[in-house]
Structure prediction request, 207 residues.
Amino acid sequence: MDGIFSFIVSNANYAHFIVFALLMLAGFNIPISEDLMIIVSAVIASTLLPENTYLLFLGVFLGAYISDWTAYWIGRKLFHRPFFAKAISTKRLEKIQSFYKRYGMLTLLIGRFIPFGVRNGLFMTAGMGKMNFKKFLLFDGIACLISNTVLFTLTFQLGKNYQLLLPYLKKFNIVLFSVFVVTIITFFCYKRIINKQKVVREKSKDF
Prediction:
């Protein structure tokens, strides 16, 4: 990854095209870090080519978003083939499938914030389960936009101190994911309490 980082920086004028292409490869389960692509793009935008900031973010966002479609269709059409079937463990797929059964589309929103190879497994599982593609585009698009914007903006603001961010990348993802999960859990707890109160009121009316 250090070599990729250096290559992109040394070809900064074409970074948005390079990052887009690399993220497209990531859709085929080639181990390319989406988070690193976001960081290097934001660093270039902040320190080398501020006039290309929007192009760089667009390259990151579209690359990440469209590569998710690739993973989805691999799961839907090609997963039974040996090359793709070996790309993710059966145990992980079964776990993700159980999340889909239990939480539905919410799994897609939460999972978009989980790095470390979970994302593609999530998208492939959505395809395997033949999730409605339009719904997939909507929910994944929202999550992708939020996660990419947060990390890109944070790195852009740090600017020349980007090297300080790299050792804390995993921690940042965990914190971001934790905040997101806590928000979702709070919402569901609140909703459950409201529903219980509603049931109690309806029962009291019957008496």
About this structure: The chain has eleven helices and no strands.
